Amino acid sequence: MRKSFVFAIAAVLVVLYSSLFIVYEGQRGIVLRFGKVMRDAENKPMVYQPGLHFKIPFIETVKTLDARIQTMDIKADRFLTSENKDLIVDSYLKWRIKDFSSYYLATGNGSISQAEVLLKRKFSDRLRSEIGRLDVRGIVTDSRGRLTTDVRNALNLGTSDDDSSADSAIASAAARVKKETKGEQPAFNPNSMAALGIEVVDVRIKQINLPDEVSGAIYQRMRAEREAVARRHRSQGMEEAEKVRAAADKSATEIKAAAYSQALVLRGEGDAEATKLFADAFSKDPDFYAFIRSLRAYEKSFKNDGNIMVLSPDTDFFRYMKDPTKQRDHVNRADN
Fold first, then answer.
1. CA within 13 Å, CB half, 216
2. Which of 109, 190, 226, 250 is most buried, judged by most C-beta within 10 A?
């Protein structure tokens, strides 16, 4: 009897434990009964918020969906600009589930991989379209923020055309959601991610590169442009240097000419003053002046060895050498 009671208590605890399930923070729960989704009055899947909930044990199972923001890294791909130039663009986007019931129906039982396939195709088409409207300068400068904003809005709100295969796939999934549910549905563009219950939070471009076959030519052209600018600046500098040098040479020549002219004037004035002084001095005693000139002539004539002079002894040049008394009288007169 006691064993039966213990067994009954254990069975009740197992059934009670099996009937409880917890939806953790950052998750949402959807209950499946015999593999079919539990739906509300509008035939939408019932979504359970975080907390403790009950279910029928062994009959109902719970599938959880991640409510957190997801990051999807986009593989770098080649895009063509409005200038018909290729760019290698590396990017990523962040998304989350906004309408869990629509997301569950559109993605085939809440498959994240299926949602990312649709999202990646739509993102690639829109990014290619937006880049095709801009040139390289606009993409790598101020227009990058506007570019990513336009792509995000196009993903969330949809576009006017649905010719691409990605738009067709999204529209097909949105039509399946509308068909499986009842009641009035929000007015979404059928090729928008909002129709699938997905919200794109952010779109970012990590890196923009040129293809290898193009980057070399671009760098060579940039180098040639910089070298041309350098040559222009160098030639302008040489021209300015020549102007400065010519002005300096002209100024130096003018200064030298003025100085030389002034020196000649001063020298002429000095020579005139010296001549006047000599003339005044020698005019007082012409004989003494003649005697001094003769001595200077003797000094210049006989100061070097080997000088030969052929003169007559009676010449006036030797008159002071012939009469020493006369020479002594001139010296005494000069001393006095």
1. 2
2. 190
